[in-house]
């Protein structure tokens, strides 16, 4: 696997680097809840845009497990204003962190059909003058729900201005060869590796889907150091370029 940079880049590069990470409410496989450790792992991905799942606690008002204060103290990432209250970081646990040169143009909350409450967040962003769209997801546990949720996302995208789009997150799909038909033929789905369980490498639950306006350069997992303990998922990452 290609090595990641030792430090966060201080400007956008030729390729867009993104990451997705189910942070499990900052609860590690050692049963320690350590937001500072979680933030160190996110930084280690060197992503310009980091899409998170399970960023908030589940009970009550769903307070942030990874707080804006921890993020600001540890990095120059900014959380997008996704939360619909004053205590959460995200919505349905979905949050997006961006580096300083990523500008927010528009934000969308997508209710998804499910046996259990689920939602996706979509951010229209500007990077180095280029508009792009990132959709963060945490799909359901049941196959019929996942397919309906992907169908709802695909239907919503069809109503929007077409932009270079990436859909990433915890797809909760155990099969590496699942066709994920609702995204076809508009998206190609990449599974960088068996990101769950962090200790056992059982299944590629975490994935990145890209439309044909993107060219994938490389993808991978962060499977070393504190990432092995910070969550039951490993972070995945990808680098993409726009043709021409």
Structure characteristics:
endonuclease activity; 3 helices; Deoxyribonuclease I, Chain A; Endonuclease/exonuclease/phosphatase family protein; 14% helix; six-stranded mixed beta sheet; Endo/exonuclease/phosphatase; nuclease; 244 residues
Written description of the protein model:
Keywords: Endonuclease, Hydrolase, Nuclease. Pfam families: Exo_endo_phos. It comes from Acidimangrovimonas pyrenivorans. GO terms for molecular function: endonuclease activity. There is one protein chain. This protein has one domain: Endonuclease/exonuclease/phosphatase (Deoxyribonuclease I, Chain A, 4-Layer Sandwich), CATH 3.60.10. Strand 7, helix 3 (143-158) and strand 8 form a beta-alpha-beta unit. It is an alpha+beta fold and 244 residues long. It contains 3 helices and 12 strands. It is globular. It is 14% helix and 32% strand. The protein has helices spanning 35-44, 68-74, 143-158, and strands spanning 16-22, 49-53, 78-79, 95-98, 102-112, 118-127, 130-138, 165-170, 187-190, 206-211, 215-221, 236-241.
């Amino acid at each position: 696997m290609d090595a990641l940079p030792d430090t966060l880049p201080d400007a956008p590069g030729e390729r867009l680097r993104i990451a997705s990470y189910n942070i499990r409410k900052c609860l590690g496989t050692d049963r320690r809840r350590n937001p500072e450790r979680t933030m160190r792992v996110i930084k280690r991905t060197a992503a310009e845009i980091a899409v998170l799942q399970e960023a908030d606690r589940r009970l009550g008002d769903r307070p942030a497990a990874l707080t804006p204060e921890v993020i600001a103290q540890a990095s120059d990432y900014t959380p997008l204003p996704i939360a619909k209250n004053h205590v959460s970081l995200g919505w349905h646990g979905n949050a997006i962190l961006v580096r300083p040169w990523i500008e927010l143009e528009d934000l969308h909350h997508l209710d998804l059909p499910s046996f259990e409450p689920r939602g996706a967040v979509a951010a229209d962003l500007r990077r180095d003058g280029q508009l792009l769209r990132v959709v963060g997801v945490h799909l359901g546990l049941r196959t019929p729900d996942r397919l309906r949720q992907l169908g709802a996302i695909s239907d919503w995208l069809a109503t929007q201005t077409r932009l270079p789009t990436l859909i990433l997150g915890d797809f909760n799909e155990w099969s590496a060869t699942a066709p994920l038909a609702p995204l076809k033929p508009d998206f190609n789905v990449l599974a960088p590796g068996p990101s769950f369980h962090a200790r056992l490498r059982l299944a590629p639950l975490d994935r990145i889907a890209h439309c044909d306006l993107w060219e994938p350069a490389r993808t991978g997992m962060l499977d070393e150091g504190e990432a092995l303990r910070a969550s039951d998922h490993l972070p995945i990452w990808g680098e993409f370029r726009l043709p021409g």
